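--- STAGE predict ---
source: upstream dedup step, 1 unique chain passed
mode: sequence only
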Amino acid sequence: MQVVKQYPDGLFCWVDLSTTDLEAAKAFYGGLFGWEFDDMPIDMGGFYTMCQIDGYNVAGMGGMSPDMQAQGIPPFWSSYVKHDDVDAIAEKITAAGGMLMFPPMDVMNEGRMAMAQDPSGAAFGVWQPKNNTGAQLVNIPNTLIWNELQTRDKAAANAFYTQVFDWGYAEDGNGYGMYKVGERIQAGMMQMDETWDASIPANWAVYFMVTDADAAAAKASELGGTIIVPVTAAGEMGRFAVVRDPQGGVFTIMQFSGPVDPPPGY
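--- STAGE serialize ---
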């Protein structure tokens, strides 16, 4: 088991869930992925929950604010890009046409972060690590394996991310976009067309690796989740399903047909 100790700048390093019912979310994701949970007190009161496998952090969870709940915002997963200078990236975000939702701020002794929206409306975070480097386990079953931008304005999104993070970009034969840091393909991009539900906003989708997509989808249903997209072939890559947890958080499970990339630098 390779434990990630340091992420290169520009790679996604963390995901977390904002939910309306933390204990119910723990029951669901613990039952589905076998995660264990460590509640960490935070300065503002309450807890931030570390989701773990064998004592290693794989994701986070926190309660949604009353204001967000009052607005009817459903639970959601957020994706965070690692960078050693969040303040410099925040300046690049605004210069490139993005919007800072939360300016750079310290998170106790764990790190420094900002939240932003790209010009197409997709939200993401930037994480500058101190004590918390991000997910210690990735690219193995029941952990993060992929982040995917789903946007209705591919051109604007690509111009933004290549300017802010210096990502490389390429498309496969089907027009599916792939973002690169150096030679590492680390995220995807999908154009949302007229077949998509108009109520779905631009977003960064999170993918968790599973060994058996059918069994995982069945387990998610058994635990009270909803299968939005049934288990479907993803070309020769493998099989996936899109799941909504009982509180409303949406994520994707992915079974691969062959080996996956090793975890990033450590």
